[in-house]
Amino acid sequence: MKFSRLILSNLFRKKVRLVLTLGSFAVALFLFAFLAVVKDAFSRGGGIASANRLVTINRISIIQSIPLSYRDKILRIPGVQSVTHDNWFGGVYQDERKLFPQFPIDPENQRQVYSELIVPDDQWNAFLKDRQGAIAGASTAKRFGWKVGDRIPIKSTIYGGDGAWEFNLDGIYHGKTAQDDETQFWFQWDYFEERVPQSFKGQVGWYTVKLDSPDDAVRVAKAIDAEFANSPYETKTDTESAFAASWVKQFGNIELLILVIGSVVFFTLLLVTGNTMAISVRERTGELAILKAIGFKDGSILFFVLAESLAIALFGGILGLGLAMLAIPVLGSALSGMLPNLILSKVMLAGGIGFALLVGAASGLLPGIGAMRLRVVDALRRI
Amino acid sequence: MVTVNTNGNSQALIQVRGLNKTYRRGGEQIQVLQGLNLDVDKGDFVGFMGPSGSGKTTLLNLLGGLDVPTSGTVSVAGDEITHMSSGKLTEWRARHVGFVFQMYNLVPVLTAYQNVELPLLLTSLSRSARREHVEAALAIVGLKDRAKHFPRQLSGGQEQRVAVARAIVSDPTFLLCDEPTGDLDRKSADEIMELIEELVSRHNKTVLMVTHDPLVAARAHMVLHLEKGVLVEAKSRANVLAGGGA
User: Fold this and answer.
1) Ordered domains of chain B (ranges, CATH)
2) Would you call B61 and A293 a contact, using CB atoms and an 8 Å cutoff?
3) Angstroms from A357 CA to nearest CA on chain B
4) A15 Cβ under 8 Å from any chain B Cβ
5) pLDDT digits (tens, 9 = 90+) for A65-103
6) In whole angstroms, what is the distance from residue A35 CA to residue A19 CA?
7) A318 SS3 class
8) What secondary structure letter does DSSP report for A339?
9) Which residues make Cβ contacts (< 8 Å) with residue B187, sequence separation at least 6?
10) ipTM entry
């Protein structure tokens, strides 16, 4: 394009200012990407939850347990295909900062209910035969450098016991999609039952119920809760997505927090770049007047100013998102166990570029309109 | 030939009739030009002199379509420009007017070549055609070897030469020069005036120039004196040099 040289020359007119403005965009877009992946991580539970799964917990709270004997009663309710149960183990591996979720699982039904988490058959069969066997999610195994056959000691913080619980890593599971949670650590229910104090025996943390059809969700949830109404352990059953959403709410209103931080970033960036563009245009009043005098139309002048601000926004945005692409896997690894997988998707990258261009257009618009409306005679008089 | 205070029809390139310009400053109305009439033929070189505030630059701005009169008309080569829309006037300027200003007003981030090329970016000329025109314009002003220099690498006189090249590169109908030597030393001023004279004599350009300098004004075919918005005196080159009247 024949105007590109003029636009590029103006872009590089003040190199320090250009670098600082690009830096503002880069930092803002890096933050944008980070907030987006955190928000996504927290909301993903609802997104990846299977439509045909229900979660049943104690009506009082998830901290209160419910009897193992409920399993068979739930299985008898029409529309229920299979049921599995889990407990929160809350153990410590090496030190308390190395968090990851551990669950004693029901090996008979785990794979039927969570069919998206894949364990190779040979590893699963080894696990079934091993009372101290364990299966780790791929990201947790990678994080700690575990491989099949390793001995893993985990100290319980809830269920006591002398010394650490020893596990043999029999297998590693992978999710079918990048969004699937690969941080869990599963071990045998029987081993758990054997070692916990008497008061915990025969108690589970929650049931996960797989349905024949998602259409049955409301009916089956009501039926489960009705089955145990007026018992010492009343239940509360929700779809898995509702359960995930209520779990996230325990951390506070993450979405609102991210929205507020994002808005502050947006307006700060808008002010910084708007001010930069306004100064840049003001410095060039005479030149713009000359361009208009020799025949450049108002639209061309607006185009030049907008093109500059959009170019800064685009390059700054690409820089920030590029840094985010490099840093987020590292951050995700460091925060593993505290946050779900941090995934910077193509949609987020596209959203980031869109965000940068929006700020670029908004910050260039007012100075551009000012330049467009400049009266040549007035501007030349000021030179 | 330049004719002042004419009301009749003519075939002149530039025809000014009953030109008035009034500014409002606060509550006060200031009449800058009062009923000016003027005909300028193709190839004329006209100088405008007069004290500050006499309306010289305002007249130049009106002739160049940078400003609009309060009343009266300006016609150039048959086009009446006083009633053109802002957009049409911009297009008209691109085709018909070359501007040379006192402060050169080059774009500092562009080379001499790129500055001269600017008016051609508005045309449909190919890159190679633009190159031919720019090189020809730079050759006329004697700066072909400085094409890749930025304005900060040129002297004041050379910058003004680049500005002249920018003004003539699109072969406009006429040139408007507002104090073209006002920021230059005598030697550079003489060089610029020789260049402008050459444009008139060899390339048959029509030039209208505002100046405060009688020596510069003496280069014009005709010098018109303005006072309080009225053309009060017209002198031929010989009379200017002799210090006599019309």
Assistant:
1) 42-65+87-242 (3.40.50.300)
2) no
3) 25
4) no
5) 999 999 999 999 999 999 999 999 988 888 877 788 999
6) 24
7) helix
8) B
9) B157
10) 0.90
